[in-house]
Amino acid sequence: MKKSKYIWFNGKFVQWDKATTHVLSHGLHYGSGIFEGIRAYSNKKDTFIFRLSDHYTRFFNSAKVAFIKIPYTQNKLENATLELIKKNKLRDCYIRPLAFIGDGSIGINPSNNKINVIIAAFKWGTYLGEEGVKKGIRAKISSFSRMGVNSFMTKSKISGNYINSVFAKREALNAGYDEALMLDTDGYVSEGTGENIFIVRNNKIKTTPITSVLEGITRDCVIQIAKNNNLEVIEQKFTRDELYIADEVFLSGTAAEITPVREIDDRKISSGNPGKVTKIIQEEYKDLVRGISNPASNYLTKI
Ligand SMILES: Cc1ncc(COP(=O)(O)O)c(C=O)c1O
């Protein structure tokens, strides 16, 4: 990771290396935190944060689910994010807001421990690699299930939940794959470790309903782009063998953007190359986030 100069920490801009916390922080022991992943993109002229308010709305919703009372307004955090990017002189970057329960009580009940909020912004390339974005990645169905919806709270990005993704990701990498695909507790396809999943069959797009996965902001963009291209989008559960016989499979996420999947469990997806629909969505998403197709889009916050 490439360090930036400052991190916003409880209302102040502090030096990157000084943004530290107590080892008895509740969040560190029990995963009692919530976070977001946001990106800023630039074109030749301007830099924009993509869907800033939508990300912070999800941040506050995650906090509500997790009983974490954020001591700042959404407006304050959005403005702090803009300021942070300016102070760090960043253009294309990844933004990581996090709220976590601090030290005080070490019991499971966090009592009145302080809520800490940080925002970091730094340069971070494509999550699943440049090669992966161009040629597609190799994925493996994980031996770990996505936790049930009454344990996982799928509408929120709760830090502790992500240990499930960490297990799955490491297992996939150790086995020589690029990413893990997770099934839900009923055996249906749910999502990647940090991405939503789409398949294309006979020119129709299918994705998991949001009942059991994160309401991905990129997922929402993919659906809009598909509909603008007169492609039918079905939100429906599907099984792992439908992945194997799909014409195209791709993942969507702020970090992973639109990444084609070329092979799953050692079965080539169609010809093993990114498909036509995936490429259309990839291109249009790229132009949308960079303000190329519509610089006046209300998804873009200019820095
Ligand atoms: C589990 C999970 N699913 C899906 C996504 C994709 O969401 P988004 O497109 O909002 O980044 C993410 C990333 O935040 C994630 O962590």
- What is the CATH class name of the largest domain? Alpha Beta
* Regions with little confidence, pLDDT below 50 for 5+ residues: none
Most strands sheet: 9 strands, mixed
Distinct ligands: pyridoxal-5'-phosphate
- Which band does the percent of strand residues land in? 25-35%
CATH superfamily of the largest domain: D-amino Acid Aminotransferase, subunit A, domain 2
> Would you tell me the overall average pLDDT?
96
CATH architectural designation of the largest domain: Alpha-Beta Barrel
Helix content: 25-40%
Number of helix segments? 9
- What is the CA–CA distance across the termini? 23 Å
Number of strands: 17
> Helix/strand-derived class?
alpha+beta
CATH topology of the largest domain: D-amino Acid Aminotransferase, Chain A, domain 2
Q: What is the domain total for the residues?
A: 2
Radius of gyration: 19 Å
- Tell me the overall shape: globular
- Give the H and E element order: EEHEEEHHEEHEHHEEEEHEHEEEHE
